[in-house]
Specification:
Helix content is about 35%, strand content about 25%. By secondary structure, the protein is an alpha/beta fold. The longest helix is centred in the N-terminal third of the chain and has 15 residues, at about 15-30.
Length: about 210
C-alpha cells in the first residue's frame, strides 16, 4: 500500500534524513560541483536538495509531477529557509520545461526506477545539462549499517507503524545502459554496490543542447 504524501514526507524528514545527507556528500565529492543550478528530479519533498544546500552554494530547481509532493517541497523549502535559493516545477522528467544547457548539476534519489520511456528521460536530462555539467542519479539506502540505525530511529518516531523499507522496482544495470546508449549519451557509468545503483554522466564542453 502506498503512503500518502504527508506520511511519506514525515518519514523522509524525521527518519531518512541521514540517507540523503550521506548521498549529498557523495554527490559533491564525485562531481566537484558546488555552485550553479542543481535540478533535483523526482524530488518528492525536496530531500536530496535540502541535504545539499548547507554544504554547497547551489541553487535548486525541484521538479516532480506530483502536486502533493511539490506541496511538501514548498513547505520544506520555507522550513529550511531556502526560498531565495529554490523554485519548484511540476513536470515529468520526459518533458522538462527548462532551456537547453541551463543547469550545472542534476541529481535524483529513488525516482529513476519508476520512470517510463527511460531513453526519453535521459535525453531530456542531457539536454538541460550545461557543458561541463554532471548528472548523478539512482537510488539506495546508504552504506551498510545505516539501515539498522534507521529502524531504531523509526521505532522511536512512529512505534505503531514501524519502519518499512521503500518498495522500489528493481531494474538491471543493462536496462539503464541500453537506455543511456539509445539516448546518445556517451561516457556514462552505471554502478551497483552495497549502497545502491547509481548512474553518472556529463556533457562535454562544446556540446550542443541535444546529444544527437
Amino acid at each position: 500500500m502506498l503512503m500518502d504524501a504527508q506520511t511519506y514526507d514525515d518519514e523522509a524528514i524525521n527518519v531518512n534524513a541521514p540517507v540523503y545527507a550521506y548521498y549529498a556528500v557523495r554527490i559533491l565529492e564525485k562531481t566537484g560541483i558546488y555552485r550553479g543550478v542543481c535540478l533535483d528530479v523526482g524530488c518528492g519533498g525536496g530531500y536530496l536538495g535540502l541535504a545539499l544546500a548547507p554544504i554547497s552554494e547551489l541553487s535548486f530547481i525541484f521538479l516532480d509531477q506530483s502536486a502533493d509532493m511539490l506541496g511538501c517541497a514548498e513547505k520544506n523549502i520555507a522550513r529550511f529557509a531556502l526560498r531565495d535559493r529554490a523554485q519548484i516545477v511540476q513536470a515529468p522528467v520526459q518533458n522538462i520545461p527548462l532551456a537547453d544547457s541551463s543547469v550545472e548539476l542534476i541529481v535524483s534519489r529513488g525516482s529513476v526506477p519508476f520512470w517510463d520511456k527511460l531513453e526519453t528521460a535521459f535525453a531530456e536530462l542531457h539536454r538541460v545539462l550545461k557543458p561541463g555539467g554532471r548528472a548523478y542519479i539512482g537510488g539506495g539506502m546508504g552504506p551498510p549499517g545505516l539501515w539498522d540505525s534507521l529502524q531504531q530511529k523509526a521505532r522511536h518516531f512512529e512505534p505503531r507503524r514501524g519502519y518499512r523499507k521503500p518498495a522500489i522496482p528493481r531494474r538491471e544495470r543493462g536496462v539503464y545502459e541500453q537506455a543511456l546508449g539509445t539516448a546518445g549519451i556517451r561516457g556514462f557509468s552505471v554502478s551497483h554496490s552495497d549502497d545502491g545503483t547509481w548512474i553518472e554522466f556529463g556533457k562535454a564542453v562544446g556540446s550542443a543542447g541535444h546529444n544527437r
